[in-house]
């Protein structure tokens, strides 16, 4: 799948994603299987140099924090597109994982179970 950018994200509302295994007020009627979003990001030379300077002063290394957050967001958005393509209404059991695939390059994966739901009568 091509890289997912914000304008391509399908509208599965964030409240329809959870690390839990149910959506309050809904019943799972169909399991569409595991969906995932994968992104591999590397630090640029300038980013690495800037982050190195930030370590001198201690505290949060904002350049690396921003890089990590962008990678997680892209992986999450790609997972949502996969869920939409599977015909899901929500994604449950959402998890993240990250692995350094080579020096300076990290794979971030976001995965969960795509499900179809029906609202419970109140």
The level of helicity is 25-40%
Assembly status: single chain
Number of helices: 2
Number of β-strand runs: 3
Largest sheet, if any? Answer: 3 strands, antiparallel
Q: What gross morphology would you assign?
A: elongated
User: Quick one: CATH superfamily?
Assistant: Hypothetical protein apc22750. Chain B
The overall number of domains is: 1
Taken in chain order, the helices and strands follow as EHHEE
* Unreliable residue runs: none
What is the CATH first-level class name?
A: Alpha Beta
Q: Give the name of the CATH architecture.
A: 2-Layer Sandwich
Strand content: 35-45%
Rg measurement, Å: 17 Å
End-to-end C-alpha gap: 40 Å
Task: Provide the structure class.
Answer: alpha+beta
Order of strands side by side in the largest beta sheet?
A: 1-3-2
Can you put this structure into words, describing what you see?
- With 122 residues, this protein is an alpha+beta fold.
- The chain has a single domain, classed as Hypothetical protein apc22750. Chain B (Translation Initiation Factor IF3).
- 30% of the residues lie in helices and 37% in strands.
- It has 2 helices and 3 strands.
- The protein has helices at 45-57, 62-85, and strands at residues 26-42, 90-102, 105-119.
- The termini are far apart.
């Amino acid at each position: 799948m091509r890289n997912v950018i914000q304008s391509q994200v399908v509208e599965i509302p964030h409240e329809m994603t959870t690390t839990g295994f149910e959506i309050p007020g809904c019943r799972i009627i169909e399991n569409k299987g595991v969906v995932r979003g994968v992104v591999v990001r590397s630090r640029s030379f300038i980013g690495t140099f800037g982050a190195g300077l930030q370590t001198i002063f201690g505290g949060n290394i904002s350049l690396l924090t921003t890089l990590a957050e962008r990678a997680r967001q892209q992986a999450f958005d790609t997972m949502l597109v996969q869920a939409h393509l599977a015909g899901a209404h929500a994604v449950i059991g959402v998890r993240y994982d990250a692995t350094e695939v080579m020096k300076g390059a990290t794979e971030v994966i976001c995965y969960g179970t795509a499900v179809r739901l029906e609202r419970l009568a109140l």
